[in-house]
Amino acid sequence: MATKGLKKSLNHPIIPWLVPVGFLLIWQFLSQIGWLSNRVLPPPTDVIQAAITLTLSGELFKHILISTQRAIAGFIVGGIIGVSLGLLNGISFRAEKFLDTSLQMIRNIPHLALIPLVILWFGIGEEAKLFLVSFGVFFPLYINTFYGIKTVDAGLIEMGKVYGLNSWGLFWQVILPGALPSILVGVRYGLGIMWLTLIVAETIAANSGIGYMAMNAREFMRTDIVVLSILMYALLGKLADAIACGLEAKLLQWHPSYQ
Amino acid sequence: MNTEIRGADLKLLRLSKSFGQTSVLSHLDLDIKPGEFVAIVGRSGCGKSTLLRLISGLDRPTSGGVLVDGEPLHQLNPSARIMFQDSRLLFWCRVLENVGLGLRGDWRPKALDMLAQVGLADRSQDWIAVLSGGQRQRVALARALVSQPRLLLLDEPLGALDALTRIEMQSLIEQLWLEKQFTTLLITHDVEESVVLADRVLLLEAGQVTMDIDIPLSRPRYRGDPAFGRLVEQILSRVLKSHSSVKNQFQLAESGSHF
After folding, report:
1. B67 lies in a domain?
2. What is the mean pLDDT of residues A208-227?
């Protein structure tokens, strides 16, 4: 009975928030008694104040919008290329022989190492960010789509043939849904890499976006805005992950682990 | 519904299959009448499943051939459906969609009707993951029969079920077979099961049919019937004897090699 009650109270929506809220309270307290210098870390109230000011001036929204647009554009471009090549190489043995080794070689280049080259190619314009994010997102989606298709149960494909499915039917009804759990794992990884790449790219070479806002604030020792920027990234990352989770729950209803 | 002969006529002519150096089936001749229920028993690795794959057209014979209604089989056998030991259902489709797999046109009423015949009409909108092993095999049976196949190939379909569910499924298969008159080929390890269901029991050994006996018992058959027991005993002792004689040969060969 007691454990049952405990389990029930652990299901309360407030439970996951207890740790972060407690952390904020301690942080505020330490700042106020002077243990934490303002230059190291501003108190949460200052961060909130910065958030309000920047929201009212419209600046915060402008930067968030630009960063989100970059993230989505890069994710779509890299994602489409990654999934398409993953599907192609997963299905066609010839394409796999021809392309997979090359792709695996390129995969081993840390994509952030390309930043100097990318700045030379594209300057600090939008293309640079689009290229880097797409490049980063491409690989998790490629790999997971490819392996997802490779690991579809051969028995099911054989069954589909016996039951009169043509190649098109086999792809849409057996191969693609069978690979979907793995593709969605790729989506989640891709979303993580998307933000990471964007943060780095905006911090190093940009004149707008959340990363730029943080770097600009650093010049003026505005630690409150720097912390605010970091929090914005955390929130947006969490949001993207929540969307991916929702997508999984919707598309994988049939999966035993979602029942 | 229609008076034409429902079952396919099946002839195997000197059918051989080898994988590399290993010969699995050698010059197998077999004649199965339309609507006949034939069971094939034999030890693991005797070539039972290979035989089924050749008849379904999933594999090509090394030499010899399969005649379906007098026509040589060159591709997937369109009149045949296989029911596998692992149900091979699509987890991402609901029960009804699984039954209707590969059907064209207005398939839902047909699939629903077939589902009712295996006693699962009320589960049509469930996911496969929530069904028990026995229910999954019922869905697989419905899927196999909904297209009104003229040849049903059963590849140890009840091997993974518990004893009670197995008996239930046996009478369901028998009842549907009596109703629809399709030719049936059942592969099984279970001699008793072969005697319960089949008109004819074949023993497959080293790629050859080494025993072919008719089961003249009336249906439905009772396991308690003395004639039933004698037939099971007869087949079982033949299966076991053949095994020990093969073993003796090996022993002789081994002892011979010492000289």
Report:
1. no
2. 90
User: Can you spell out the DSSP letters for chain B?
Assistant: ---S--SPPEEEEEEEEEETTEEEEEEEEEEE-TT-EEEEE--TTSSHHHHHHHHHTSS--SEEEEEETTEEP-S--TTEEEE-SS----TTSBHHHHHTTT--SS-HHHHHHHHHHTT-GGGTTSBGGGS-HHHHHHHHHHHHHTT--SEEEEESTTTTS-HHHHHHHHHHHHHHHHHH--EEEEEES-HHHHHHH-SEEEEEETTEEEEEEE----SS--TT-HHHHHHHHHHHHHHHHHHHHHHHHHHHHHHHTT-
The Cα of A93 is separated from the nearest Cα of chain B by a number of Å equal to: 20
CB of B232 less than 8 A from some CB of A: no
- Asked if B203 is an interface residue toward chain A (Cβ–Cβ < 8 A), one would say no
How does residue A124 score in pLDDT terms, banded at 50, 70 and 90? confident
Host domain of residue A221: 45-258
Q: What is the pLDDT of residue B198?
A: 94
B50 touches chain A (CB under 8 A): no
- For B235, the domain range is 1-56+169-259
* B143 neighbourhood in chain A, CB within 8 Å: 163
How many domains, chain A?
A: 1
Global ipTM: 0.83
Report yes or no: B125 at the A interface, CB cutoff 8 Å.
no
Asked if the structure places residue A1 within a domain, the reply is no
* 8 Å CB contact of A159 and B88: yes
Looking at the domain assignment, is residue A75 inside a domain?
Answer: yes
Residue B257 belongs to domain with CATH number: 3.40.50.300
- Whether A32 maps to a domain, the answer reads no
